[in-house]
């Protein structure tokens, strides 16, 4: 249960035309629900610190949790943000997957004498895992987005700007939401990012233009917002027009403009003479190399998608390039300002903000994002806290996978085609017959919390649409405003005779999350004056990953037309390890990574954030006695053992 609710925006939104225009123009569904959610406020949950990397004097944060809850936390802490960039799911109808790479097993590699040899990328076995879904009904998406944008607005500083990155699927609708939330007057630009140039060959595009752009909607909160003009280099053609030799002799130089003295004086009065031009008064010449370039317009064609070979590539579906964020951050913030991304993904915003000396806040709902950005920032030498919002559910990696896991665990639940999609399915009872079951969707924050809005919908919308023979329904919840309040609400409403049973979904989820098993030993050796502790992993068993691989093998076998070679995992299972860390500071509580090893997808070791050209040998070392060992498997589950 949330500790409390924090109001959206400085004041509750009473009196503001919440979706009023939208409702009228587009007959937009769900406006009432949004307005009730907004009046209730943002749920504030306990926050647990998982790890501190470095001193972190700037208060940088990596938060695992939903955008709205992260904003509730920031608002409660009195933290304001000067620049927000978000790249939320696009409502594109796509499901995004993480590529899972089986790592190189040190023991097997040694046995077959490949220790010195680089394995071909294709030799690495790979399978995919669902990471997050991007399949929404339009109304649902807009309700959700409205809530998120209102939450973000609540924590903006008076000089803040916000950039929302979308595309043709939903961008135009969100522009209208943003006009309503931030005000049409505060719209600054629509930036068209040409992300690619050659998508014209697919079958789907036979009868239309190829779609190569995304839209980034840029709003400011008030009049005093940060805007640092950006420039792009002069075009070659332009440069050629002005080049000739000057009296400096050996220099080729460019005369852009020569002003008359009157013009010069006027410009000087207006404070528009720059670049040391005064020194050359009265004949004012601008040298090309001293010029800043051409002021940037809203069409950005010079930034390309992340190259798979690039250092910044994190293998994160939908990852955006650092260059894009560099331009946004340079435009709308100055050094020391706070830059946040509440749908942070691979951490492009946090990583770029850190490089540009800004403070950063990254939040995301998926564990894969948190691990990716954590490792990325460690490699960059950043300092930050890793925090987790305790919103009542223990996620199984991410909401999509948790949903997949829970469904089969709900006793007796089966799909029932005659029921509306509101119901997850039904169970059968010898006396009561069919019992429809409602299961909240973890991807949809509006359904995660059982409140009077939702139970009202069950009583007045979902139950009346059921067959009249239905006597009972089961409503699962993850989070509930107050069980007493909801039961009272049901008891006081006499419009249905159908029994409503409430059940806590967390009891089911607790069975889903089980740790991995590791066998390891720790040895102490002395090298000269130094003592070294070496932890050797002898065996690693992850039922969760093995289950995934089995599932993959079975599916691939059924679908494969040629002979299929299944993925096989060795007895010791070391190829299922992606990351190891030793905590030599504390035996419990938040994690201190005193020594860490990440094994990249080619089997090379990244030691304490530094890439090496050595393969992993099955060990991890520290110079202090290790108290705890953490292992992350290739799917992202982490388990901790006492050493
Ligand atoms: C398009 S990706 C962001 C990619 C990112 N810009 C990058 O360059 O890597 C969208 C992200 O939003 C996250 N997400 C989805 N729903 C969320 C929610 N309600 N709160 C926070 N994060 C969410 C997903 O886990 C995913 O990482």
What report would you give on this structure?
The structure is a single chain. The chain is of the alpha/beta class and 643 residues long. It has 4 domains: 278 residues, Rossmann fold (3-Layer(aba) Sandwich); 63 residues, no CATH class; 113 residues, Dna-directed Rna Polymerases I, Ii, And Iii 27 Kd Polypeptide, Chain: A, domain 1; 126 residues, no CATH class. It is built from 17 helices and 33 strands. Helix 3 packs parallel to helix 5 and helix 9 packs across helix 10. About 5% of the residues have low confidence. S-adenosylmethionine binds next to loops.
- Report the CATH superfamily of the largest domain: Vaccinia Virus protein VP39
Ligand catalogue: S-adenosylmethionine
Main sheet properties: 10 strands, mixed
CATH topology descriptor of the largest domain: Rossmann fold
Taken as a percent bin, the fraction of beta residues is: 25-35%
**Structural domain count:** 4
CATH top-level class of the largest domain: Alpha Beta
Residue stretches low in confidence (pLDDT < 50, at least 5 long) are 12-18, 111-124, 248-256, 278-282
Q: Count of DSSP E strands?
A: 33
- Which value, in Å, is the CA radius of gyration? 29 Å
Largest sheet, order of strands side by side? 3-18-4-17-16-5-8-10-9-15
CATH architecture of the largest domain: 3-Layer(aba) Sandwich
In round numbers, the mean pLDDT is: 83
- As a percent range, the share of helical residues equals 25-40%
Please give the count of helices.
Answer: 17
> Quick one: overall form?
globular
CA-CA gap between termini: 35 Å
Structural class of the secondary structure composition?
A: alpha/beta
């Amino acid at each position: 249960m949330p500790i409390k609710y924090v109001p959206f925006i400085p004041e509750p939104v009473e009196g503001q035309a919440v979706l009023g225009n939208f409702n009228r123009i587009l007959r937009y569904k769900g406006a009432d629900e949004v307005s009730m959610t907004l009046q209730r406020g943002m749920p504030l949950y306990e926050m647990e610190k998982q790890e501190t990397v470095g001193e972190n004097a700037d208060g940088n944060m990596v938060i695992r949790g939903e955008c709205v809850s992260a904003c509730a936390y920031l608002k409660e802490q009195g933290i304001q943000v000067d620049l927000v960039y978000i790249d939320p799911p696009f409502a594109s109808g796509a499901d995004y997957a993480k590529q899972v790479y089986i790592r190189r097993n040190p023991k097997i590699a040694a046995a077959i004498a490949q220790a010195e040899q680089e394995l071909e990328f294709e030799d690495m076995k790979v399978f995919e895992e669902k990471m997050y879904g991007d399949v929404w009904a339009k109304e649902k998406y807009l309700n959700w987005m409205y809530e998120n944008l209102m939450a973000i607005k609540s924590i903006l500083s008076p000089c803040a700007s916000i950039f929302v990155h979308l595309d043709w699927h939903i961008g135009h609708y969100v522009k209208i939401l943003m006009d309503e939330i931030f005000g049409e007057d505060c719209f600054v630009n629509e930036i068209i990012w040409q992300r690619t140039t050659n998508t014209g060959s697919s079958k789907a595009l036979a009868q239309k233009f190829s779609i190569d752009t995304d839209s980034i909607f840029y709003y400011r909160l008030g009049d005093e917002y940060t805007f640092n003009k950006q420039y792009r280099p002069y075009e070659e053609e332009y440069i050629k027009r002005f080049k000739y030799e000057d009296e400096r002799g050996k220099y080729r130089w460019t005369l852009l403009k020569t002003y008359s003295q009157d013009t010069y004086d006027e410009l000087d009065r207006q404070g528009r003479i720059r670049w040391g031009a005064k020194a050359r008064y009265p004949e004012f010449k601008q040298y090309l190399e001293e010029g800043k370039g051409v002021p940037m317009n809203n069409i950005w064609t010079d930034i390309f998608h992340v190259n798979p070979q690039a250092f910044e590539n994190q293998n994160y579906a939908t990852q955006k390039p650092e260059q894009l964020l560099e331009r946004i951050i340079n435009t709308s913030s100055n050094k020391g300002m706070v830059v946040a991304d509440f749908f942070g993904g691979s951490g492009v915003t946090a990583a770029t903000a850190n490089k540009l000396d800004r403070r950063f806040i990254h939040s995301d709902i998926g564990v894969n994002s948190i691990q990716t950005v954590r490792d990325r920032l460690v490699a960059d030498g950043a300092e930050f806290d890793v925090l987790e919002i305790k919103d009542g559910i223990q996620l199984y990696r991410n909401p999509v996978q948790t949903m997949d896991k829970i469904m089969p665990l709900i006793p007796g639940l089966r799909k029932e085609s005659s029921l509306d999609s509101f119901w997850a399915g039904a169970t059968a009872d010898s006396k009561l017959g069919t019992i429809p079951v409602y299961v909240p969707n973890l991807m949809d924050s509006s359904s995660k919390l059982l409140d009077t809005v939702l139970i009202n919908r069950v009583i007045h919308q979902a139950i009346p649409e059921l067959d009249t023979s239905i006597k009972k329904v089961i409503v699962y919840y993850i989070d509930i405003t107050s069980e007493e309040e909801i039961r009272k609400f049901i008891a006081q409403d006499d419009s249905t005779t159908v029994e409503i049973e409430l059940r806590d979904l967390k009891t089911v989820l607790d069975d889903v999350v089980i740790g991995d098993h590791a066998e390891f030993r720790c040895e102490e050796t002395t090298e000269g004056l130094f003592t070294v502790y070496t932890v050797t992993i002898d065996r690693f068993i992850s039922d969760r990953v093995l289950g995934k691989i089995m599932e993959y093998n079975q599916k691939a076998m059924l679908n494969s037309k040629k002979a299929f070679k299944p993925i096989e995992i060795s007895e010791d299972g070391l190829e299922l390890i992606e990351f190891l860390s030793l905590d030599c500071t504390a035996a419990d509580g938040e994690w201190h990574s005193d020594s860490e090893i990440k094994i990249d997808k080619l089997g090379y070791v990244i030691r304490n954030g530094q890439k090496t050209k050595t393969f992993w040998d099955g060990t991890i070392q520290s110079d202090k006695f290790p108290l705890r060992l953490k292992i992350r498997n290739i799917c992202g589950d982490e388990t901790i053992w006492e050493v």
